[in-house]
């Protein structure tokens, strides 16, 4: 096949070359001026808002932080203005696989049950040392609304104080409260396998009209809602958290609970207890 330059060298006009080749006259002119077929020109690839923060994300992932909501909060503190989708797309190939056994869901009616637990969380203080702090967690069985409060110790007085604050936060008292065999409220099990409740807790429960119950041993689904809540605290609230003291931490925890409790739960559709 004869080239454009050969046609032009043989005296063909640009109009004639355009008619012969089926190209436009402007295209013929462009190819003749380029002395051949021009190389395709690609514009400079547009950078992402996330690009400057990727090394920081790599550092967080090296620390075991893969929760994208946590990463979004940490990056916003550093000036990131993009969305969470960019973070998810970057983190996804690096996320370790999760192996979660299937557990049958245990449901209750509105206002019937709440679940409580203690959890020991770790944090890094201002001197870079790893510290531990207990957190009280309470979740309503139907709506999944939750309340968390950090304390200096896991004793009965701290437990009752947190429990009162939780009931005030929810604005009511459920019929039953489910717990595991935590030493804070259970002194032991009798010969009839019934719990011997701490007298202060037993008096409080009777006063407010709430029936305490103990979940069955090796039956995680019965107390799975609060178990998932304490995992959520570890994975979503605590990573990268900075605070000055317990009061400051609890102010942040209260705000976090308010935000989480505004979400529409997939099972309940946002209905409350």
Automatic annotation (TrEMBL):
Family membership: Belongs to the transposase IS21/IS408/IS1162 family.
PROSITE patterns in the cross-refs: HTH_IS21, INTEGRASE
Coiled coil: none
Positions of the Integrase catalytic domain: 106-273
InterPro entries: HTH_IS21_transposase_type, Integrase_cat-core, Resolvase_HTH_dom, RNaseH-like_sf, RNaseH_sf
Protein name: Integrase
Keyword check for DNA-binding: yes
Lineage: Bacteria, Bacillati, Bacillota, Bacilli, Bacillales
Pfam families linked: HTH_7, rve
Keyword Transport: no
NCBIfam families named among the record's database cross-references: transpos_IS21 (NF033546)
Domain HTH IS21-type: 1-61
Keywords: DNA recombination, DNA-binding, Transposition
